[in-house]
């Protein structure tokens, strides 16, 4: 699983013509800035045992993987600083209200 920050959402409108029939489709996407993985192995092992994930405080290079259909977003996360150039990522429950 990768962790990132959503920069913005956008909608792609498609209009398909088949003979006399016209179909309209909308697809919603998110543009995500992915956090770079941390390479501090002892710290990662200690934090994972508590359900925390450590990442670098900078983003990976922008690629096509930054465009994501919204149905592929798994859950929200909380992010907190953890020393210089590090972040702690805390996965939050997918559903928090009834």
Topology:
Blueprint: E1 4-18, E2 21-37, H1 41-48, E3 53-59, E4 67-69, E5 77-81, E6 86-91
Antiparallel strand pairs: 1-2, 2-3, 2-4, 3-6, 5-6
Structure description:
By secondary structure, the protein is mainly beta. It has one domain (4-91). The chain has one helix at residues 41-48; strands spanning 4-18, 21-37, 53-59, 67-69, 77-81, 86-91. Strands 1, 2, 3, 4, 5 and 6 form a six-stranded antiparallel beta sheet that branches. The radius of gyration is 18 Å and the shape is elongated. The model has no long low-confidence stretch (mean pLDDT 87).
Which strand-content bin applies to the residues?
over 45%
Number of H/I helices: 1
Structure classification? mainly beta
Low-confidence stretches: none
- Give the proportion of residues in helices: under 10%
Mean pLDDT: 87
Determine Rg (CA atoms, Å): 18 Å
Q: Total domains, how many?
A: 1
- Tell me the total number of β-strands: 6
- Shape descriptor: elongated
Order of helices and strands: EEHEEEE
In short:
The chain has 98 residues and is mainly beta.
What are the defining features of this structure?
1 helix, 98 residues, 6 strands, mainly beta, elongated
């Amino acid at each position: 699983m990768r962790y990132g920050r959503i920069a913005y959402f956008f909608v792609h409108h498609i209009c398909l013509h088949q003979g006399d029939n016209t179909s309209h489709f909308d697809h919603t996407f998110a543009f995500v800035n992915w956090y770079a993985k941390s390479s501090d192995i002892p710290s990662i092992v200690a934090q994972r045992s508590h359900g925390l994930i450590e990442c670098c405080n900078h983003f990976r290079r922008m690629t096509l993987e930054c465009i994501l259909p919204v149905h592929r977003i798994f859950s929200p996360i909380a992010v907190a600083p953890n020393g210089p150039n590090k972040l702690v990522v805390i996965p939050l429950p997918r559903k928090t209200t009834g």
